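okkk here we go again. third time trying to get the nicotinamide-adenine-dinucleotide bound version out, last two times i messed up the smiles copy paste (missing a bracket lol). double checked this time i swear
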Amino acid sequence: MRKHKIVVVGCGNISKAWIEYAKGRDDAVIVALVDIHPAYAEAAKVKYGLDCPVFTDLRESIRATGATLVFDLTILEAHPTVVIAAMEEGCDVFGEKPMAPSMAEAEAMIEAADKLGKTYSVMQNRRYLKEMFAFRELVQSGTVGQIGFITSDFFLGLHNGAYRETMDHPLLMDMSIHTFDQSRFITGKEPIFVECHTFNPAGSWFAGAAAAIITFEYEEGSCYSYRGCYCAEGASTSWQSSWRVVGSQGTAIWDGRHAPYAEVVIPTNEIVFENKHRRIDIEMTYSGKDQHGGCLDEMFDALNAERKSATDCTDNVKSLAMLHGVMRSLREGRKVKI
Ligand SMILES: NC(=O)c1ccc[n+]([C@@H]2O[C@H](COP(=O)([O-])OP(=O)(O)OC[C@H]3O[C@@H](n4cnc5c(N)ncnc54)[C@H](O)[C@@H]3O)[C@@H](O)[C@H]2O)c1
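finally!!
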């Protein structure tokens, strides 16, 4: 059995999910922890009961341990440098979202992976839920007909948001990539234009814009309307957002918490009394792990099978392009091509 020797770089909040997952795999071992603040790596070593050295330099850690795989759990700004250095040192990389602070840096990461013959997969844990797979099946099977209008609502009051509270665009730069990626996963569609408006609602405890209203347009004229807010008190949606897909034959609904369903038009010859629509429930067949575990299983399966994972950088860059299209629309104050 191939044994993956893992360096974990970035030992902050999200490292718990990754380290605990890796400890549960027979074909993987964590050989080093890296952080620019060595105290964080030392603390993680104790907290997770690891028996491995701690470094402040990623390249040195790979050379000293013969690592083959790097988990990049650093902050967004560090992702390009960390990912490219890891691949140059001969490692494949699994990393946290979003890929990169700019499209130019994301393209450089993809180019490096291609040139060096390495893979780089990006965490999109919010795809990996049985309700999400069922909703996708409902939408892509044609049950509601041709897709015409997609909406998602994300309304939460995020307290203890740490660094997010001082960011210029906490909702967009921290969270929206999950929802944009989910829109691609659910519909299989790639938008071509975007227009965005952001603002900071009354009562917000964020310094930057905690709310956004965005319109994405697809080639054939259908639209995806995103509404989000990180400072919404009361009646919160789930972290998965609340979704509506309106098709030519009906509407598919997922509130992000319960089982998705659709209501579709009943053919005229089958109408009884006033009922014009029929409810369609869908079986939930996804039996994999939830969230990070599901995405990491897929990344390891792909690496072992020498194929690209579902969230390989060459695919994930399309979700990132939605985010950077939004940011460009804000800068230019108009609708832009993605
Ligand atoms: N998928 C999810 O649900 C999810 C949830 C939270 C965070 N994240 C993502 O995970 C990443 C980290 O977020 P976090 O909340 O753990 O942040 P954090 O600030 O808690 O941790 C980041 C760690 O990286 C270290 N670091 C920064 N630059 C480094 C570098 N160049 N080399 C080595 N170490 C470096 C920091 O010292 C810190 O310990 C971000 O990209 C974030 O968007 C994803």
